[in-house]
């Protein structure tokens, strides 16, 4: 399908004027296969900070090979490692012969730099003015300068494997950066965005580095070198959750930002795991329409630790960065699990395409009236699911709520199905319209105006 407009997902109330017997419903992903285990000598029980991206027809998974402890002694080293896949499901660790570890180079290590590799995070640069030899960029680094001040460096690559620092000086210094920091080119504002770690410590009398509540901030840049002042994430609900990582993305073909923070709860500890470093973690879901103001329509967790006891350990259930398409019906994301154990690794999560949340109606009929918006052109397609007796009905209204066109009952389960109306809606091109949506025992995930290719 060719999209004439951005896909609109029902992840908040932004499009909704009124609703009756309909609620917003969050759809947690389905845990699928474990795609890699950190079982190499240079990886270890504290390997993490996963990024998955598609480049040159392949899926690249980047992660930190790292451990702080062995059975014999405390150690501290970090590598940047890579796993590859043809389909985003089956990954393998290539032998690259680039970096030496334990006396040989027969490994999948692409970078050895204690500072940069601690939290190395790459992205495919979609800036139309990007140099062809720097199509993949990355950030890494967290050397402390002071309270909420540290060193974050920029890197570049033309093949996704061989990386070079853009300059010897850091590109950012305002933040602690001591977890996975996220950068991407935002084609909505035509700037680079960086979401990074800082500590909210204004309530402390004499704050020190790493003291306070872990939180998320962002800044923008036209050129990846000079950055605007950081803006702290703003939320529609005040809850002092501690966010360890953010995994923020601009969802493809939308104007919607999603973030999947790892929520760190430091004062809880399951009795089957004993460590001086207490805490449990899970994964949250928040959304934004501008990248600064964040909506927490869903206060429940997005991914629970689950039955696996090894996931009830701090810094587990950490969502990796990236949403990739693995079939015509499916997005995949990737989560670290079993952190600090000998089965530490990465599990794939399956998500319905554009189905992160929905308008949900049970057996009692419900309805939603959207706010007015400009209809430019194209057919209406909906991403929906019903029961055998459920349905979705769409009415097109003018701004005075007069019905211009109506569909019959639509039932089934489709990612994007064209809505057939009893009147040609194309005659209302460039007019402002509303949608009146009737639902019964069904979910409406998203809609878009487009045309068949």
Structural descriptors:
globular, 5-stranded antiparallel beta sheet, Tachylectin-2, Chain A, mainly beta, Jelly Rolls, 11-stranded antiparallel beta sheet, 2 domains, 453 residues, 48% strand
Summarize the structure.
By secondary structure, the protein is an all-beta fold. It has 2 domains: 2-26 and 357-451, Galactose-binding domain-like (Jelly Rolls), CATH 2.60.120; 30-352, Glycosyl hydrolase domain, family 43 (Tachylectin-2, Chain A, 5 Propeller).
CATH domain class name of the largest domain: Mainly Beta
What is the CATH topology classification name of the largest domain?
Tachylectin-2, Chain A
The DSSP helix count reads 1
Annotation, overall tally of beta strands: 37
Task: Indicate the proportion of strand residues.
Answer: over 45%
The CATH H-level superfamily of the largest domain is Glycosyl hydrolase domain, family 43
Mean pLDDT: 94
Quickly count the domains. Answer: 2
> Main β-sheet, in a few words?
11 strands, antiparallel
Gyration radius (Cα, Å) is: 23 Å
Low-confidence stretches: none
CATH architecture of the largest domain: 5 Propeller
Q: Quaternary arrangement of the chains shown?
A: single chain
N/C terminus separation? 5 Å
* Tertiary shape: globular
Helix/strand structural class: mainly beta
Helix content: under 10%
Describe this structure in words.
- With 453 residues, the chain is an all-beta fold.
- It has 2 domains: 2-26 and 357-451, Sandwich (Jelly Rolls), CATH 2.60.120.260; 30-352, 5 Propeller (Tachylectin-2, Chain A).
- The chain has 1 helix and 37 strands.
- It has one helix spanning 114-117, and strands at residues 2-3, 8-9, 16-20, 23-26, 30-37, 48-55, 58-69, 74-85, 91-92, 109-111, 121-124, 136-146, 149-157, 164-165, 172-174, 182-186, 191-200, 213-221, 231-232, 234-235, 249-250, 257-259, 262-265, 280-283, 286-288, 293-295, 318-319, 324-327, 330-337, 345-352, 357-361, 366-370, 373-375, 379-397, 403-406, 413-418, 431-451.
- Strands 1, 2, 3, 4, 31, 32, 33, 34, 35, 36 and 37 form an 11-stranded antiparallel β-sheet that branches. Strands 5, 27, 28, 29 and 30 form a 5-stranded antiparallel β-sheet that branches. Strands 6, 7, 8, 9 and 10 form a 5-stranded antiparallel β-sheet that branches.
- A hairpin with a 2-residue loop joins strand 6 and strand 7.
- The longest helix has 4 residues, at 114-117.
- 43% of the residues are buried.
């Amino acid at each position: 399908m060719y999209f004439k407009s951005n896909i609109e997902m029902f992840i908040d109330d932004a499009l909704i004027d009124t609703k009756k017997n309909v609620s917003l419903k969050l759809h947690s992903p389905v845990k699928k296969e474990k795609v890699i285990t950190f079982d190499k000598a240079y990886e270890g029980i504290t390997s993490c900070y996963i990024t998955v991206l598609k480049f040159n027809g392949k899926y690249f998974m980047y992660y930190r090979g790292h451990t702080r402890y062995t059975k014999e002694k405390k150690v501290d080293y970090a590598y940047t490692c890579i796993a590859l896949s043809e389909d985003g499901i089956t990954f393998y660790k290539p032998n690259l012969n680039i970096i030496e570890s334990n006396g040989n180079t027969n490994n999948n290590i692409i970078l050895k730099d204690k500072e940069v590799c601690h939290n190395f995070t790459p992205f495919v640069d979609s800036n139309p003015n990007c140099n062809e030899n720097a199509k993949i960029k990355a950030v890494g680094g967290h050397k402390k300068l002071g309270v909420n001040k540290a060193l974050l460096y920029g890197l570049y690559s033309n093949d996704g494997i061989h990386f070079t620092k853009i300059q010897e000086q850091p590109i950012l210094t305002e933040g602690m950066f001591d977890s996975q920091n996220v950068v991407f080119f935002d084609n909505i504002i035509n700037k680079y965005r960086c979401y990074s770690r800082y500590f909210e410590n204004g309530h402390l009398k004499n704050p020190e580095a790493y003291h306070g509540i872990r939180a998320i901030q962002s800044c923008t840049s036209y050129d990846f070198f000079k950055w605007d002042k950081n803006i702290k994430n703003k939320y529609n609900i005040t809850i002092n959750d501690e966010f360890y990582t953010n995994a923020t993305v601009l969802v493809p073909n939308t104007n919607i930002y999603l973030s999947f923070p790892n929520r760190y709860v430091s004062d809880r500890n399951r009795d089957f795991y004993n460590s001086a470093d207490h805490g449990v973690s899970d994964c949250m879901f928040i959304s934004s329409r501008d990248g600064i103001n964040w909506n927490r329509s869903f206060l429940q967790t997005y991914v629970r630790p689950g039955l696996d006891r090894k996931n009830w350990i701090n810094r587990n259930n950490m969502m990796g960065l990236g949403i990739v398409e693995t079939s015509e019906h499916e997005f995949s994301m990737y989560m670290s699990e079993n952190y600090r154990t000998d089965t530490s690794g990465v599990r794939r999560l399956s998500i319905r395409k554009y189905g992160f949340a929905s308008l949900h109606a049970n057996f009692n009929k419900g309805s939603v009236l959207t706010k007015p918006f400009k209809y430019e052109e194209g057919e209406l397609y909906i991403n929906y699911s019903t029961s055998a007796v459920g349905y979705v009905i769409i009415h097109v209204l003018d701004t005075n709520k007069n019905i211009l066109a109506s569909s019959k009952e639509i039932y089934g389960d489709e990612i994007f199905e064209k809505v057939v109306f009893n009147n040609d809606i194309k005659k209302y091109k460039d007019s402002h319209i509303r949608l009146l949506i009737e639902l019964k025992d069904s979910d409406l995930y998203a809609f878009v105006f487009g045309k068949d290719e």
